[in-house]
Design brief:
alpha+beta, Nuclear Transport Factor 2, Chain: A, 7 strands, 23% helix, globular
Length: 141
């Protein structure tokens, strides 16, 4: 991650320097670039990609880092109840607070869609000077 000087990370002052790879991966090169993958040029964009990667990785899936990842996939066959939703939200909140100290969580919303058996999770947060960051995950349960 970039070294933070004040409230703006140092690498964000160099717009031509890539910080990391964006998620989701793209099969097509970005226009005007020789790169196969989308490159993130700001720390806020890279943190968003890192959060998505972290939440979609199961604990024990990453070699040599058995504690890396979230427990979202453990809820795959759980009944879609208020208790399950609250437990999942608490797991996500605890995971983000422990792994991403620069992220300030504002709100986590979970909306069940019983017709399609999908849970939509929206995570609202801020990073550095960016105040309106948003991630939406649709998880089949």
């Amino acid at each position: 991650m970039a070294i933070e000087i004040g409230r703006i990370p140092a690498n964000d002052n160099q717009p031509a320097v890539g910080i990391g790879i964006g998620i989701p991966f793209s099969a097509n090169p970005v226009s005007g670039s020789d790169s196969i993958f989308k490159i993130n040029y700001t720390t806020a964009d890279q943190i968003k990609s890192n959060i998505i990667n972290y939440l979609l990785t199961s604990k024990g899936e990453r070699i040599f880092s058995p504690n890396f990842g979230s427990n979202i996939k453990e809820y795959l066959f759980e009944p879609l109840s208020d208790q399950t939703i609250e437990t999942l939200k608490k797991d996500i909140e605890d995971s983000i607070k422990s792994i991403f100290p620069n992220v300030i969580l504002k709100n986590i919303e979970a909306t069940p869609n019983f017709e399609f058996n999908v849970l939509t999770i929206q995570i609202f947060y801020s990073v550095f000077t960016s105040t309106d960051e948003f991630i939406e995950l649709n998880i089949p349960l």
